[in-house]
Structures are given as C-alpha cells and as structure tokens.
Write a structure and sequence with these properties.
This protein is an all-alpha fold. It has a domain of 145 residues. 71% of the residues lie in helices and 0% in strands. It has 5 helices and no strands. α1 crosses α4, α3 packs antiparallel against α4 and α4 runs antiparallel to α5. The longest helix has 45 residues. The protein is elongated. The chain starts with a helix and ends with a helix.
Amino acid sequence: MQFKSVKQLILPLVKGGQKWQNITINGQENKPKLFLSNVQWVLLLLSIIIQFKLTSGISGNVLGYLISAFSISITLFMSLLVNIFDKFENTEFKITNLLESDIVRLKQKKNFFKRFISITSYLVVLSILIVLLCSITYFIDSLSGDISINTFTVEWSKINVLLTIKNILILTYRVVLNYFILNYLLLTLFVAGSAYEYYISELDRKRIE
C-alpha cells in the first residue's frame, strides 16, 4: 500500500464528508460563504477563548482519556457504517409503479444514506486525526508549557523572534485541536439528530392497521 493510494482514497472521503454536511435529504445544497458554516466559525472562536482559559493546554491525563475515547469511537463508527450499509443494500430503489410521493421519499432515503455514510466516515478520519494530535504532546514536551497573553510583548527590543514563533505554533496547535474536538462533537450530534429525524418520519408513515 502506497501513500498515493491512501491519498486518493482519503481526499474524496474528506471532501464528501464536508460536502454532505451542507446537503439536506432533499438534495438541496447550502454552501457556506466563508468555507466554514456559521456554527463552525463559532466553534473556532470558542477554541480560541478556551485557550485563554487553559493557558497550559489540555492536561496530560485528559489527553489520555481523549485518546482512549476517540480510539473506541473509531471502532464504533466503523461498526455503524457496516450496519447502515447493510440496511442500504436491503432497500429497494425501484421506481416502477410508484406514486410521485413515494419516488420523492425514495430519493430522500438514498440521500439520507449518502449523507449518513459520508459524515460518519468523515468522523472516523477526524477521530484518527484527533488521536494523532493528542499523541504529539507525549513526544514534544514544549507543547504542554504555559502560554498566556503576558508571554508576548509589543516592545520590539524585548521580542525574542524564535520564542515568539514557537509560542505561535503551539497556540495554533492547541486551537486546532480544540476546534477538531468541538467540531467532532457537533457532527456527532448532527448525525444523531439527522438519524432521529429520518427514522421518526419513517415510523410516522407506518400506519397501525
């Protein structure tokens, strides 16, 4: 297995996961104007605010819990993908002799499966990325250092260029990690809410005779 092969598989998966976050089960796409959705921009802002509160970053113990939790979530999501695909395989998509309303419903069902599978696969990749980011802290001790606003200065004569660049990189790493964790939680809620909405609508269509 070569890196090129992995890249060819992962990139479409990531693009598909991001794309289907903005598509309804009716097939309507609402692309965000500034790459991220409004909610994701709020998450990014929260990630920055969290850094002002946790000036030393996430503690080593919490990182250990996060690695364990996201490692377990990878297995759970992979099992969920298999189960959902089995349901998809057992669904009839023939439109012969169907009413227009039934055809619309069938299209919604197909879009639901595509969205659910795309975002869940994206969550698996995101989980792996978070585990890797959390693991970096155990190999680079400087990532756990205390960094606050007082660490920086606007006086040119007192600026240590290398130290400033180092601190900016550490802060960027922490903000990105915070954002990925918050975005993961958001997408998990989105998938759960999407599944609930779809399943309830399917149950409501079944009449008791």
